[in-house]
Design goal:
alpha/beta, five-stranded parallel sheet, 6 helices, 5 strands, 49% helix, 19% strand
């Protein structure tokens, strides 16, 4: 039924619940589990508003990417502990919903399993949640946990 299941993971407890649900589905269907952690580009404009000044402002993207890598490694560990055997992790920069949908299309994903609420910003409360955007943009089925 499903060959590839995508789980966007932001490190939140809700994302962990969605991941565990995806592991169960993968176990039933024999699907490969793809875990995607998306990180935002940290712009110089945002840095200019920050109370904390870095010595090298260009390093913020490195810090965001490193954090995303740690979150992704944690997600793979959680998935394996829950019984997943075929797991791959990915990190990508970009706007979360569009990055998730583009990644799903690129990898030929059959199902996206994501949480209804994660660690989103205030912008998401004003413009709509990532899960809402993904359900509207995705070309494959989306399960919102």
């Amino acid at each position: 039924m499903f060959q590839k299941i995508l789980v966007p993971f932001d490190g939140s407890s809700n994302a962990e619940k969605a991941l565990k649900m995806a592991v169960e589905i993968a176990d039933l269907t024999g699907a490969e589990l793809l875990i995607l952690t998306v990180y935002r580009h940290y712009s110089m404009l945002e840095a200019s508003f920050s109370m904390v000044r870095t010595v090298e402002p260009g390093r913020m993207d490195d810090a965001m990417r490193d954090h995303a890598h740690k979150v992704g490694e944690h997600a793979k560990s959680v998935a394996r502990q829950a019984g997943a055997t075929r797991v791959r992790g990915f990190i990508k920069p970009g706007q979360p919903a569009r990055t998730i949908v583009a990644f799903a299309k690129e990898k030929g994903v059959d199902l996206i399993v994501l949480s209804s609420r994660g660690l989103g910003s205030v912008e998401e409360y004003l413009l709509g949640s990532v899960s809402h955007k993904v359900t509207g943009l995705a070309e494959c089925p989306v399960l919102v946990v």
